[in-house]
Amino acid sequence: MTDAEYVPHYRRIEQVLRERIATLRPGERLPSDTELRAEFGVSRMTARNAMQRLAEEGLVARQPGRGSFVAEPPAHRRANRLMTFTREMQRRGLVPSSRLLARTARTATPAETAALGLPAYDRIIELRRLRCADERPMAVETTVLIGACGDIVMAADLEHGSLHEALLQGGFTLRRGTGTIVAEAATDEDARLLQLDPGAPLLVERRVIADGHGRRIESTESRYPADRYALDVTFDVEEPDVPSPDDRR
C-alpha cells in the first residue's frame, strides 16, 4: 500500500489550488470555503484547512467578509516552509527550469545511509541539477533519495517538472523535515555552474525530508549565490532572565 492512499482530502484540494494559483495574478479571487465544499464534496472544515495552509504559506490572502484572494508573492521563501523550487520561482514571476547534471542509481555511502536511516550498502538515487530562473543560474542542487523512489525519479522530467510533484504522483507524500543553513565559499565547480568568481559567498541549505510515517525519503544540499537568494525568518523573542533582588546582593 503506498503512502498516497493516506493523503487527506485537504491536501488534495491544496494541490489543486496551488496549480490554479500559479495561473492567476495577485488579487484575483479564489473559491470560498462553501464553493470548495461543493466542488470537492468535502466538509466545510476540510475546505477551510486547505485554504488556511495556503494562507500560512503566504500564497493566499484571506480577508474577513470578502473572501480569499491570490496574495502578492513574497520576496523570499520563509525558512520554516519548504516549497518546490518550481513553485517558488513561479511565485516570484520567474520562469523556472533545470539542467540535469547527473541521475544515477548506486550504493549509498556511510554518510548517506546515516542521513536517511538506511541499511549499510543500500541502493539510492542521486540527482544533481542546476536550478535556473529566467535562465539565470540560481542553485546547484544535489539530492539523494531512497531506492524505493527509483522508478519514479529515473522516469521523471526533471528539467521542466518538479521532483516533489513527481514523487507525490508516485505515492510518496513528503510532510516534514529538518535542515541547516550555513555560509560557504564557492568551489571552482560552483563558480563555473553559477557564473561566479571562485570563493564568492554562497548560502548553503542542507535538509532531510520524511513522509507522514517518519520515513526519511530525501537528503538535499542546495548551494545558492548569496546575492540571488535569501530566506525570511519569523521568531519569538525569549525573555531575558531577570535576577531577583537577593541575587543582586
Walk me through what this model shows.
The strands form 3 sheets. Strands 5-6-7-10-9-8 form a 6-stranded antiparallel β-sheet. Strands 1-3-2 form a 3-stranded antiparallel β-sheet. It has helices at residues 9-21, 33-40, 44-56, 85-91, 110-116, 150-155, 163-169, 188-194, 245-248, and strands spanning 29-30, 60-63, 67-70, 77-78, 96-107, 123-133, 136-146, 174-185, 201-211, 216-225, 231-232. The protein has 9 helices and 11 strands. Mean pLDDT is 87; it is low at 1-5. It is globular. The protein starts with 8 loop residues before the first helix and ends with a helix. α1 crosses α3 (44-56). The protein folds into 2 domains: 3-70, Orthogonal Bundle (Arc Repressor Mutant, subunit A), CATH 1.10.10; 77-232, Chorismate lyase, CATH 3.40.1410.10. With 249 residues, it is of the alpha+beta class.
